[in-house]
Specification:
The structure is a single chain. Strands 6-7-8-3-9-10 form a 6-stranded mixed beta sheet, with helices on both faces. A 6-stranded mixed beta sheet has the order 16-19-20-13-21-22, sandwiched between helices. It has a 4-stranded antiparallel beta sheet with strand order 2-1-4-5, covered by helices on one side. The model has no long low-confidence stretch (mean pLDDT about 85). About 35% of the residues lie in helices and about 25% in strands. The longest helix is centred in the middle third of the chain and has 16 residues. It is α/β, with parallel strands linked by helices and about 500 residues long. The chain is built from 18 helices and 22 strands. It has 3 domains: about 170 residues, P-loop containing nucleotide triphosphate hydrolases (Rossmann fold); about 70 residues, no CATH class; about 150 residues, 3-Layer(aba) Sandwich (Rossmann fold).
């Protein structure tokens, strides 16, 4: 399945292959990108998307195949030559220097002045930066420090930085992964401005609704193989998913919960931690999923971290099973049966230096030890049980966790919490950065957790996800609890109005 384009082709990828040891990352992948086109690349975790991006930007060389860019044929490029030829990349992890100003970051690779041995003056830097930012329709002050900017503004600075080299093609790898809805809108405005100027975009994302909205065409990769390229306006999200996974998946199917008598398991009253949130009260029952929704900066993550003991509250009461909890640390929270899956698994979740086994079992080891010696047989039972239960894909549980895809790392973190027998599970963006297949599996896992009478709190920026999984939805805006809605009464319009309109 391949769709031709009427505009001039600026990039042609022809039979690109790449192997890492015995693993095939890409196998004879071919596609084309047209001038002024937003071309989306989608696929499950491990499909080969990042490998493809790294080949195009010169980070790695292909084993075979080639690509043509602006009429020149290459077997591979180094990053500098790639940039000089007019190809820029914006990685998911933004490459900005926080203590420097906007203008210093934008021109960090082009500070030479008119005369040899001299750098651009502050006035010149500011004027040239203003021209670029105005052309993008934004009003960021060139002298602002990066560390003072919101995530969306940092994303805009990355785009402005890419424009300094006058690119013809910009690679964007998961550019909306840390953006709220309004910030994503602003990014899409930027992309449309770039397209009007004849600049092409390769847009890599797991968020298929966004892919449908911003792209002109979509190329699907599965297990390193090219599956096809389709016109976006002629394709449904369900069709894209089928191409990605090779089977039917209902991504946002409404979770069905058994109607059984439920008891209050977690009660929060008047919880306050300034400046993050004030006077938050709610109750979660056993076997219930409570979802928190709000824009980035609303205070959702800080609320979760306060309940779990990472942050010390100013005031308020936390009860589990009707008794007041004295939570001053995560260890205290786990003692009361509370577990937290953090938003950033790379920083606060996985331990890079450890294996899959060690990451999964580390929280339960004290229970398995006698006189300081861990019963390996018991550890093996627990690890094997959860690897099978959550279908964690790993060649061996003794492999480094960094060898796993992002989705499987997320499963290991969930298994770690389940292993310590928590009955209140807080999950902060549990499906962020995972593919549709893993997302569906995590949603399925939530069903299983509620059947075990576990109370689940989900913090999510994915509004369709919130509507599909939650029994109750709480909306937070600027640290204030704006309202509670039962799932059967909730709509996207209602929730977004509550989250954005004061």
């Amino acid at each position: 399945m391949n769709v031709s384009v009427k505009k001039p082709v600026i990039l042609k990828v022809d039979n690109i292959s790449k192997h890492f040891g015995g693993v095939t990352a890409l196998d004879r992948v071919s596609f084309e990108v047209a001038e002024g086109e937003c071309h989306a690349i989608v696929g499950e975790n491990g499909a080969g998307k990042t490998t493809l991006i790294n080949i195009l930007n010169g980070a790695i060389f292909p084993d075979s195949g080639y690509f043509e860019f602006l009429g020149e044929k290459f077997n591979g490029l180094d990053p500098l030559t790639s940039m000089q030829r007019g190809l820029s990349v914006i990685h998911q992890e933004l490459a900005l220097i926080e203590p420097l100003s906007v203008m210093e970051n934008i021109f960090i690779g082009d500070l030479n002045g008119k005369f040899k041995g001299f750098i651009k003056s502050q006035k010149t830097l500011k004027n040239e930066t203003e021209k670029i930012l105005i052309s993008l329709g934004c009003d960021i002050d060139p002298t602002d420090l990066i560390e003072s900017l919101s995530t969306s503004k940092k994303q805009i600075v990355e785009i402005a930085k890419a424009l300094v080299t006058s690119p013809k093609l910009i690679l964007m790898d998961e550019p909306t992964s840390s953006l709220a809805l309004g910030e994503t809108r602003k990014l899409f405005e930027m992309i449309n401005i770039l397209k009007q100027r004849g600049i092409s975009i390769i847009f890599v994302s797991h968020r298929l609704n966004e892919v449908k909205e911003i792209s002109d065409r979509i190329t699907v990769i599965r297990d390193g193989h090219y599956i096809g390229t389709v016109n976006t306006d002629e394709t449904s999200v369900d069709q894209i998913i089928r191409m990605m996974v090779g089977r039917e998946i209902k991504l946002y199917e409404k979770l069905q919960h058994e109607e059984v008598k439920k008891t209050a398991i977690l009660e929060v009253a008047g919880l306050t931690k300034k400046p993050y949130f004030t006077d938050i009260s709610f109750t979660v029952k056993s076997g219930e999923i409570l979802a928190f929704y709000g824009l980035i900066g609303a205070g959702r993550t800080e609320l979760a971290e306060t309940i779990f003991g990472y942050i010390h509250r100013d005031r308020g009461v936390i009860k589990t099973h009707g008794r007041v909890c004295d939570i001053k640390s995560p260890k205290d929270a786990m003692r009361y049966g509370i577990g937290l899956l953090p938003e950033d698994r790379k920083i606060a979740g996985i331990i890079d230096s450890m294996s899959v086994r060690e990451n999964l079992s580390i929280a339960v080891l004290p229970k398995l030890a006698r006189f300081g010696i861990v019963k390996k047989s018991e550890e093996n039972k627990i690890v094997d049980r959860f690897v099978k239960l959550l279908e964690i894909k790993t060649a061996s549980v003794d492999d480094a966790i960094t060898n796993l895809s992002g989705g499987n790392q997320q499963k290991v973190m969930i298994a770690r919490l389940m292993a310590i027998d928590v009955d209140i599970l807080i999950m902060d963006e549990p499906t962020q950065g995972v593919d549709v297949g893993v997302k569906a599996e995590i949603h399925k896992l939530l069903r299983e957790l509620t059947k075990r009478s576990i109370a689940v709190i989900v913090i999510s920026s994915d509004l369709p996800e919130v509507l599909s999984i939650a029994d109750q939805i709480i909306v937070i805006r600027s640290g204030m609890l704006i309202g509670k809605i039962k799932s059967e009464e909730a709509t996207e319009e209602k929730i977004m109005t509550m989250a954005t309109i004061g």
